[in-house]
Fold this protein.
Amino acid sequence: MPRSILEPRFQVEHLSILDSDGNLDAALEPTIAPDQLKRMYRAMLLGRRLDERMVRLQRQGRIGTFAPIKGQEAAQIGSVVNLRPSDWMVPSFRETAAMVWRGWPIEKLLSFFAGYLEGGQPPRDQHDLPITIPVSTQLPHAVGLAYAAQYRDDDVVVMAYFGDGATSEGDFHEALNFAGVWHVPIVFVCQNNQWAISVPLKKQTHSRTLAQKALAYGFPGLQVDGNDVLGVYAATREAMERARDGGGPTLLECVTYRLGVHTTADDPTKYRSNEEVAEWERKDPLTRFAAYLEKKGLLDDRLEDEIDAEIAAAVQRFEAQGPPEPLTMFDHAYAVRPPHLEAQRAQVAGSLAGGAPHGTPETAASPPMRGQRAARR
Amino acid sequence: MAKLNMVKALNLALLQEMERDEDVLIIGEDVGVDGGVFRVTEDLHRKFGSKRVIDSPLAEAAIVGTSVGMALYGLKPVCEIQFSGFAFQCFHQIENHAARYRMRSQGRFGISMVIRMPYGGGVRALEHHSESEEQFYAHVPGLKMVIPSGPRNARGLLVSAIRDPDPVIFFEHKALYHAAKEDVPDEIEALPIGRAQLVREGSDLTLIAYGAMLRLAREAAQVLHDEDGVEVEVIDLLTISPLDRDAITASVRKTGRAVIVHEAPRSFGPGAEIATSIMEGAFLSLEAPIARVAAYDVPFVGFAREKANVPDLARVLAAARETLAY
């Protein structure tokens, strides 16, 4: 018997609408209201300026390690603007621009990176998960959210963010497989920024694209120029509409570049060339979007000062927060504190009040035993 | 009231909680049409449909990971991991996320979910089908770790686990599934998590056990009564974490002697925490060193040699007599 073809050769599309030289494919240009275009540019610029400010704050020791987003503003804002407040956003750990768009107060983000869990608490009405650090492990949560929304028949789409490195993890595979089998309303947004710390994409996968991985799970994948905010917007909009109409999941690969460090603890000169970085700086997502808006007369000269003032005010609010209260560490381990945590909390409370230091054995505070000893011996 | 084995009792708990609360759903490998490899979810698929009793793809991390997502949305998933020996493929989802979400989100999200896993040896099974690995979960802050010892308490504890606002790891000993039938009330009965049960009163020695080891402890107590004329108190822990320290120390303050029996390897096992709790809460009442009867600190030995490794009656009796004679 001859071999027969079960599936025709697959094709993976790449979408680009506004290229790095500012050329626009007018036929593909999405219709976005002028006000929305201005808001998007503002959010991207805010993402960039906040990023720069946070690097300085980290260098000054005012916040801890964080993962800068510089270069990925279009991939984040072009996608996140398509979410409704009732939709769910599932970040990894490099989505500050997208998180601020969703309504995270800047001082809260700063607080998170300064080591306060309070900064990672999504506001009660906000349908966002907190930052997830172990790579790709948030993706099954996103699929579970989408399943639950479908189970309850809610009009909800879930958007999940991750990077190129995450596509090598087992949880990526399991999440996309479950999403395909369950046909849930979800958009997987991969920010392929070329580097997983020091490991380049070519060592991460032998696939030509990351988008094509979706095809194996039975749903569409699309590669888009991740530095082209119009391209990301159009691709995400299409994927969101498909999800909302019961068309199931989509994987978007936003081809972008991490212009800065992996985290503030990283030195990229050890593994990549300045020439490579310079080449991607020419493809900066902000430059081409600014030129596009300039032609439309939508650029505001005072914007940068306004944004810097907003960030400065948030830094002030962040630094005005009180010192960490140690006892709150016992508040959210369980819904109701079990007896052993009650005892440990009392111990810390006692030591804070000037009593014995934390390490004192609990035996010291069990008077009934002394009486017992007398009775027994 | 019906005479049920543990499988049927667990099935009853799932059925009644699903009838009571639409947010409760079941997910796992073969839990649907097949009713689970041990039949704990039998017939639930027919009653509630494939949206609520989900035959998942074969992937432990995604079973737990998607359940975390469902719990974040407000549902109450009950996951089945087919054997506890396979749970290391989802341990990161349990430890990194299920256990931590309440803390990480400072109370914004709680993860109300149950992860059921058959565990334990004595059933002539291959590697990864016979281990007793409760210590890993008992050590993780944010989790609760429950192990019933019979049909009635299994049913009552599973009901509480499903209603618990926090993630509960629920171990079911395979050798107990069909071991005995007990009267189980028709009306829903919930047994509190975090409370041990005094199952036999005595004044000379406290035997502390749980799961399949409880039967050994009871047998040992009877033999010691019949042959040695000593009265042994037996405590069924039922919850490993949070540990019912009050019940344990109250008993040892009375008896002055304690032997802990578990199927998990000895070093850094639950016995270590139980013994320390006794030291902290009943040190001045102790008449003898606390003894542990546990599996040895070796990886899976193969079921041909399992009897030499897992505690048996002779080892429990020997430890008890040594403690009594100290």
Remarks:
- The longest helix of chain B spans residues 213-228.
- The first strand of chain B starts at residue 2 and ends at 4.
- Residues 197-325 of chain B form a domain with the Rossmann fold fold (CATH 3.40.50.920).
